[in-house]
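Q: What would this complex look like in 3D?
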Amino acid sequence: MASKNLLLLAGDGIGPEAMAEVKKLISAMNDKLGSGFVTDEGLVGGCAYDAHGAAISDADMAKAMAADAVLFGAVGGPKWDAVPYEVRPEAGLLRLRKDMELFANLRPAICYPALAASSSLKQDVVEGLDILIVRELTGGVYFGEPKQIIDLGNGQKRGIDTQVYDTFEIERISGVAFELARTRKNHVTSMEKRNVMKSGVLWNEVVTQTHKARYADVKLDHMLADAGGMQLVRWPKQFDVIVTDNLFGDMLSDIAAMLTGSIGMLPSASLGAPDAKTKKRKALYEPVHGSAPDISGKGIANPIAMVASFAMCMRYSFGMVTEADRLESAIAAVLDDGLRTRDIHSPGMTEVGTTEMGDAIIAKF
Amino acid sequence: MASKNLLLLAGDGIGPEAMAEVKKLISAMNDKLGSGFVTDEGLVGGCAYDAHGAAISDADMAKAMAADAVLFGAVGGPKWDAVPYEVRPEAGLLRLRKDMELFANLRPAICYPALAASSSLKQDVVEGLDILIVRELTGGVYFGEPKQIIDLGNGQKRGIDTQVYDTFEIERISGVAFELARTRKNHVTSMEKRNVMKSGVLWNEVVTQTHKARYADVKLDHMLADAGGMQLVRWPKQFDVIVTDNLFGDMLSDIAAMLTGSIGMLPSASLGAPDAKTKKRKALYEPVHGSAPDISGKGIANPIAMVASFAMCMRYSFGMVTEADRLESAIAAVLDDGLRTRDIHSPGMTEVGTTEMGDAIIAKF
Ligand SMILES: CC(C)[C@H](C(=O)O)[C@@H](O)C(=O)O
Ligand SMILES: CC(C)[C@H](C(=O)O)[C@@H](O)C(=O)O
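A: Here is my prediction, written as structure tokens for the whole assembly.
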């Protein structure tokens, strides 16, 4: 049997609380189903800085490289607002993405039927929404050099970041988007700002070529990223798969998540290229929400995004499609029963805490 | 009497149709009120490329520099999708912004009461919405160098754009935001991505210093730009003035515009620094919507954003506050009467074309 080594990096804020529910689930699956998950743990973010002075230690980084999959909670909080840029909590996540070469970030924005009414958008605009944002995750302005602040003298400084994309990076991320579209509604929308950015011109060109050469059966549209943001708000159901760069993907996927009325519910997967020999992809699974320091430690955080990230992990890293489907159904069933954490609570529903929500999902699983 | 020289650059697509309504209004004001506007016209965008091979000619650029204010329609369309990057329609607008040093882009997102129901957001989320996005317009990734595509050989290219901000640029745009906040609800939210961008670190630092040194009476919040986009969708009324950079401002202002359910209604002003001697600011006024080639030439475009841009022009360039107020009230009155162009039409309302809408506003003015 193939190994199922998981590294759990719970991180800061509500990360550990949400991760605790996944740990219970893993134990239950090992006990009752003999699923054979082996877990190890490490530190990332502010807690790693407190322990080691770095946002992730080399030892934990080595564990992540060796694991079959990493489950990641969330990082950051006001406690670390003043730490040096190089060791800020986010640096741990960025190092994981970069060193593991997790270039493909999959962010589904799904509107759970039970929650359609709780979106700030009209119910008919979001009901049944199911889009997938494929965000490039190891390139662009996040990692391009030069990236620095220069002292110009006279009280003037200059802040510089560099957006860089090479052909092969655009090719491989659009390949992922086209492949996934084939398993869905067969429609990809590529977003960039080719009207002001040279990287956008190249993006548009390479996506078009990749489509022509290998995926001509998939419907492809191009949209300027600003117009894309507007269209997401106006009528999101026009989209199936959206493929875009690191920074636009950051903005657009958060907006898409918010449309669903349930940012506390949405998982993500970050995947590397398949290994030439083993065909296995390095992978990290992470809720879209952040560390939410304002509610951490109160037992009220919504663990669903973290649990749903574990479902994605089973699906993409271990081919456990049945179990992933069952876990996603368990989440939907618990919502149908009216159970709600505070962030998604509405009149007539039953408010529960983090552990109760986790227990209820496990019970339905 | 101070001069009132206007340069009209109608541009492409629905630009000329919308501009025609403003021309009628200007004639009426000159005839009946002796307003004394003197207009000249020029070409920008695709039509300028067709005529001169450039997105704006040096002669028209000189006219823009000399005018008291520029009214701008819209540029671009599929006809020019394949023209070289340097002369694409948008290059005309970008040259105007850069050469006139229009660093401050003011984009009000206002929800007209008559249209609150037509937003894709729930009525209570957007009703009464009145936020102002102050976008830096002459810096950042739009203009930073290097900006190029390099051929790396082996079929590989590299697309590069550079995000650059200097202290003085952040200082002056935040000064504009704080000043405007004082005339409103006295609250500024600054948005950047300091957790991944060095320019964001500098942005945050300079806004904080400017606030402390000169505007401590204004409430200041900082938000990461991705979280800001989410909050705009979740509960936009939490904002008063948002100040942000060129690229984030592009994305966020379009999203804010879409919230109001009426992108065809929203104007913008782009202002330079006050001249040391005359105190006059160079200025360009422009609807937020684009050239909408799909509906151009059909007489159905909504001229309200263009007319409202002229109201901003009267307010900011000529101190004609009474006339600006009256024009904005005329727009609201026509909507209250149930008149709608197709883009904002809803059951029970009266659908009208571009000229009818323009005439109705002039009649109420
Ligand atoms: C925490 C931060 C560095 C990160 C990003 O900007 O990528 C987050 O916003 C995300 O979207 O995963
Ligand atoms: C036309 C384009 C260059 C422009 C921009 O990106 O600034 C437009 O989207 C805007 O927001 O004014």
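A: To summarize the key features: Chain A has two domains: 1-106+266-365, 130-259. The CA atoms of residues 45 and 146 of chain A lie 24 Å apart.
Q: Very helpful, thank you.
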